[in-house]
Design a protein that fits this description.
Elements: H1 11-29, H2 33-49, H3 51-62, H4 66-92, E1 95-97, E2 106-114, E3 117-121, H5 127-140, E4 144-148, H6 154-167, E5 173-175, H7 180-186, E6 193-197, H8 200-212, E7 216-220, E8 226-229, H9 235-247, E9 259-263, H10 267-282, H11 298-313, E10 317-320, E11 324-325, E12 330-331, E13 334-337, E14 354-360, H12 363-372, E15 378-382, H13 386-394, E16 400-403, E17 424-425, H14 430-436, E18 438-446, H15 461-473
Parallel strand pairs: 3-4, 3-6, 4-5, 6-7, 8-9, 8-15, 9-14, 13-14, 15-16
Antiparallel strand pairs: 1-2, 2-18, 7-17, 10-13, 11-12
Helix pairs in contact: 2-4, 2-6, 3-4, 3-6, 4-5, 5-14, 9-10
Bound molecules: nicotinamide-adenine-dinucleotide.
Length: 474
Amino acid sequence: MTNQIEATANKTDINNAFETLVSNQYKVGNTLPEERIQKLSRLLKVILDNRTSIQNAMMADFKRHPLETDMVDIYPIISEIKYVKKNLRKWLKKQKASTPISLLGSKSYYKYESKGVVLIISPWNFPFNLSLIPLVSAIAAGNTVILKPSEITPHCSSLIKSIVEEVFSQDEAVVFEGDVDVASHLLTLPFNHIFFTGSPRVGKIVMSAAAKHLTSVTLELGGKSPVIVDETANIELAASRICQSKFANNGQICIAPDYLFVHKSKLEPLIQALQNKIIEFFGNTPKESESFCRISDSSHTLRLKNLLNDAINHGAVIIHGGETDENTDYIAPTLLKDINMDSEIMNEEIFGPILPIIAYENINDVIKHIQDKPKPLSLYVFSQNQDKIDYIINNTRAGGGCINHCAIHFYNHYLPFGGSNNSGIGKSHGFEGFKDFCNTRSILNQKYPTVLDRLVPPYNDFKQKIVDFTLKYL
Ligand code: NAD
């Protein structure tokens, strides 16, 4: 929808900011829970004060309806901040650890200490949510932060910068806007942690840059999240929930259902129900619906058009939609059947409003397909049979998922959110998100004399007997 911006940050500014954040890291890292909670309260207030500006920025960047922005960008941040504020005192307390008999006379604890200076790189599809939720975790953990939002949503990125500048001082958190050049320069610096959200392709670049400094990483990546509708599923409910999560944000959601397996006995009823839902949600001409946003930019529109054409060239049939318009970055909500598994659409993350539908007879064929592919970020099962649900979950691997719904596990801050291998490393949200930005520091305090004081050279038979006893009984 928008022209991409040129990199605005220059290397000297970045280097100077980094040095400032390095020198201030202990001061910030030793702030009391109350001080961090105050900062989070300030952030909460500024976000709420800017609610309309956030909605407008999303509208300018890809015509997203304000209500959808409330639901998918603003609500998750608000709920995350409130949850972290409520729990932070508890998380920052020293945590007692037990003592094995062999170490009698000592006491142990561990605590979550800040890592230092951290980098957050975020994508464009939920610009606020995916920049500010990791920022909340990083600040809660006591780090100093550089945040680089995506160049593809410039109105959002510039607003993120002004929100962060209003809340935090320059020696605590700064935002650098810019494209791959800015990101690449940032990746040369010796951060203590990098939190990256984006594609697996760029995730690999981030991880290899991090390896040069042995910087720890959280990688929130993407992939192809399958949805399975079995023969016992409630078809009306499944259709409604699949359409809600596939076509919100125009399908540009890392955890959107990417493709759909349906038991062959339910293929026709499900197709009919999905078509009805699309019309109910967006009318007969979705292009005119204010509830259906646009593709972020022309390169992604073209990518989706090519995926669709390749699928058709491989024999796929359009059941619904199929209209594309590069001038307005419009791709209609589209359902496809008769999918050739070798077509690109079955081998690349779709990240748009096109849903391939594949009928199956034997669930083991579906499981084999999923096992043979990189681990998805999410997997969804629609079924009313617990044994079938357990069978699918136990025989597949994924970052997370839902039963009888799609994508909404993201909203539960009690659940760690993230992928596995190709779909991600590490977790975000709530306590797990906070922990990824901390070092768990373990400390043993030797209060009283210990038997270990006796087990020093020169070794002799008596000392050997103590060790033998320990190996046998303790
Ligand atoms: P992207 O990987 O192209 O870009 C993400 C960020 O990385 C941007 O800020 C971009 O400027 C930066 N970047 C791009 N090239 C870079 C390079 N060579 N070196 C360093 N940084 C670079 O991703 P995107 O197109 O913005 O977002 C879509 C992808 O993100 C999809 O794969 C989607 O599944 C994934 N995603 C994952 C999650 C999650 O929580 N797991 C959430 C949203 C999106």
